[in-house]
Write a structure and sequence with these properties.
Length: 338
């Protein structure tokens, strides 16, 4: 029995004991009011209970649907992984250079040079003295044996690491500083990674396959294992073995994966270099690519260094990309050290 039931019972008993007719009538009116109040309260509690029961049922149903969906997704993922395991693997290095652009649906920019490669006065960066000294010491120590790819990478390590470090140092020392091309980006979130292996399901020569390759360097932000975070791909080559098509192929994989995931900006940048000859490449929003070739040793070292700065600026601009999905469709990154 609820408190209102007890109160109603006591009020009714008390009303029956009253001898004054008017008081008795008023007391019975109070009893009727208590009855109505009691009934309303019971109805309210009943409705509340019904709402809670309904909510619990809906939550249980939602939970069951989510569990079912999760199970279906896991089964689908498992089947997809099994299917991919059966696909033949095609190494990027085995694809002839002339096939790269057509297979990825790329078009070369025709006519005038892409204005992106034209450096404005504020974009021209002098090479710092400490980097000049490092490269001079490198040449002195290595001498004539610099031609192989392993030694080339030590030279590129110096160029890339000191350039990115200079960008970060400037921003860390001046919190309010931002590049004129990076009103929203930050160099603090841009990093460099070495030798990243990745795969992409694609159609090559009219047959499904799993493209596979390993980039020498990649500039990324936020999380190295998320494909959308990779904005600059670099291929290092031994002296005399320059071929920028391999870099273009890796760039295309990232470009198409970003597009599949609905990224607002699918532009990708790349570099193919032996540390002396530099080919800078860009794939734009419309899958049109352009490139520019420069020679570090023939007086164009400042242009090479400045364009590297410009590409890192672009990577910083892309750093706050909002994630429409955590992982880009079809791209699998692995670390060779794992």
């Amino acid at each position: 029995m609820s408190p209102l039931d007890l109160l109603e019972e006591k009020a009714f008993a008390l009303a029956g004991k009253l001898r004054d007719r008017r008081l008795k009538r008023d007391a019975y009116n109070i009893v009727e009011d208590l009855k109505r109040l009691n009934t309303a309260e019971k109805n309210r509690l009943m409705e509340k209970q019904m709402e809670e029961d309904k909510k619990r049922k809906e939550e249980k149903k939602k939970q069951q649907e989510e569990e079912k969906k999760k199970k279906e997704e896991e089964e689908k993922k498992k089947k997809e992984e099994e299917r991919k395991k059966k696909l033949p693997t095609k190494a990027i290095t085995d694809i002839p250079g002339y096939k790269v652009a057509p297979m990825f649906g790329l078009k070369r920019m025709e006519g005038l040079r892409d204005p992106f490669w034209v450096l404005s006065p504020h974009e021209r960066k002098p090479i710092p003295e400490y980097l000049k000294q490092i490269l001079s010491d490198y040449n002195l120590a290595v001498g004539r044996s610099f031609g192989n790819e392993a030694l080339i990478r030590t030279r590129l390590d110096a160029i890339f690491l000191t350039t990115l470090a200079a960008k970060k140092r400037l921003e860390f020392n001046q919190p309010s500083h931002r590049s004129s091309t990076s009103s929203q980006g930050s160099y603090k979130s841009v990093h460099i990674q070495f030798e990243k292996t990745f795969k992409l399901e694609w159609v090559y020569d009219k047959a499904e396959c799993l493209l596979q390759g390993r980039t020498d360097y990649s500039f990324w932000h936020k999380d190295a294992n998320l494909a959308e975070t990779n904005t600059i791909i670099v291929e290092a080559k031994a002296v005399g073995k320059m071929d920028w098509h391999q870099a273009l192929a890796y760039m295309s994989m990232i470009h198409h994966a970003r597009r599949r995931a609905g990224r607002p900006d699918v532009t990708v940048y790349g570099i193919a270099t032996d540390s002396f000859d530099w080919t800078f490449i860009k794939i734009d929003q419309n899958s049109v690519f352009s490139s520019v070739k420069l020679d570090w040793a023939e007086g164009q070292h400042m242009e090479c260094y400045s364009l590297l700065h410009k590409l890192i600026d672009r990577a910083a601009v892309l750093s706050p990309v909002s994630t429409l999905s955590d992982r880009l469709a079809g791209v699998c990154f692995t670390n060779p050290m794992e």
